[in-house]
């Protein structure tokens, strides 16, 4: 058996704390160090100190004294590229949280760094690491479903005021230093489900479909620079229609759910209590159950196991790389050109800014693929 895989985690608060929690008890990995500009905020700092895990304020300081087989980048969006490139330059494979970047111009930098380091760089879109999704995708690639006609997904995940006040970059377009962020529901919390539509249609296990036509309606109920509600329609270069409906401003929580319509079958999924099952319903009346798919803690961090196993076994392929994730970045780039409308009838309920009736209207859009204005908007 190979030696334990050494891992450094950059960004141990917020989402990164989940990586620390998993790595503290991982049987195939060893925490070589952690990096954060405010490590004292981590609830795991006492455990890290007790185990003698080195704590640094920068990756540069870590690499000056240590090496890591794998670098997990869980820092804010605008640091993804710079931190990933530093890790690659120092000989680490990379697992970077989604998105790849907020700007498409960063892609050549990743490409060059990966090539020169002769390491891989994975991007943590959770469902792209799911065995259930892989089984579904392999059947699609084998032609079991026929030509893709339309794919749609919906998620309502209300977020309170604290969510947007948790950092100085949440909901921002740019940092105070001018770095691109474009944090939004499509580029952060619900990005997994937008990317999933692209990933399922990729012609290889680690590729995505190419999108050639995009139209979007962007809205906000919260006082942010980007948007918290989105209806995105797109077409792939092979003619499949895509629909992504998502909001942080509904009164109710729903999804994620999706329906993937092909010539020979429709694949459906609906998440309840953070889990659900993916089922294909064929036109001949038969069905195929692909298994469970969820949004639990274990589901979210299965990607870490995949990356550790890919280091132990070099023949194992990482299913979602920086190249796979670039399709999502290209969509975010195009969304920057669309206007953002403000809802007029926003209510404050228990710390949440919500739009009464929004869930019903969005659900109707999802089910009927209809167009038209949503609810009353503020006048410009």
Automatic annotation (TrEMBL):
Domain Gfo/Idh/MocA-like oxidoreductase N-terminal as annotated: residue spans: 6-107
InterPro entries xref list: Gfo/Idh/MocA-like_OxRdtase_N, Gfo/Idh/MocA_Oxidoreductase, NAD(P)-bd_dom_sf
MF-aspect GO terms: nucleotide binding
TM helices/strands, residue ranges: none
Top-rank taxon: Bacteria
Protein name, entry field: Gfo/Idh/MocA-like oxidoreductase N-terminal domain-containing protein
Species the sequence originates in: Shouchella clausii (Alkalihalobacillus clausii)
């Amino acid at each position: 058996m190979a030696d334990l895989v050494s891992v450094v985690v950059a960004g141990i608060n917020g989402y990164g704390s989940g990586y620390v929690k998993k790595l503290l008890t991982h049987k195939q990995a060893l925490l070589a160090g952690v990096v954060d500009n405010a490590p004292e905020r981590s609830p795991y700092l006492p455990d890290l100190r007790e185990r003698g895990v080195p704590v640094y304020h920068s990756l540069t300081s870590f690499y000056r004294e240590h090496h890591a087989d794998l670098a997990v980048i869980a820092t804010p969006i605008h640091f993804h590229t710079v931190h990933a490139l530093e890790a690659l330059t120092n000989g680490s494979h990379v697992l970077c949280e989604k998105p790849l970047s907020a700007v498409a111009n960063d892609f050549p930098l990743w490409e060059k760094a990966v090539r020169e380091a002769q390491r891989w760089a994975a991007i943590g879109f959770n469902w792209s690491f799911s065995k259930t999704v892989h089984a579904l995708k392999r059947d699609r690639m084998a032609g079991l479903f026929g030509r893709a006609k339309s794919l749609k997904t919906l998620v309502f995940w209300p977020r309170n005021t604290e969510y947007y006040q948790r950092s100085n970059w949440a909901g921002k377009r740019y940092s105070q230093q001018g770095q691109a962020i474009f944090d939004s529901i499509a580029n952060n919390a619900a990005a997994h489900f937008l990317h999933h539509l692209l990933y399922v249609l990729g012609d290889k296990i680690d590729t995505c479909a190419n999108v050639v036509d995009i139209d979007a309606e962007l809205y906000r109920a919260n006082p942010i620079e980007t948007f918290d509600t989105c209806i995105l329609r797109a077409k792939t270069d092979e003619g499949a229609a895509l629909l992504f409906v998502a909001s942080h401003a509904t009164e109710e929580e729903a999804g994620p759910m999706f329906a993937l319509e092909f010539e020979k079958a429709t694949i459906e999924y609906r998440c309840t209590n953070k889990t659900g099952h993916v089922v294909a319903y064929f036109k001949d009346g038969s069905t195929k159950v692909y298994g469970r798919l969820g949004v639990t803690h274990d589901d979210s961090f299965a990607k870490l196991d995949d990356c550790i196993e890919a280091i132990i076994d070099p023949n194992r392929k990482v299913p979602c790389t920086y190249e796979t994730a670039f399709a999502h970045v290209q969509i975010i780039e195009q969304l920057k050109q669309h206007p953002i409308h403000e809802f007029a009838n926003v209510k404050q309920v228990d710390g949440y800014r919500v739009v009464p009736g929004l869930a019903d209207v969005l659900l109707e859009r999802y089910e009927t693929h209809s167009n038209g204005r949503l609810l009353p908007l503020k006048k410009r």
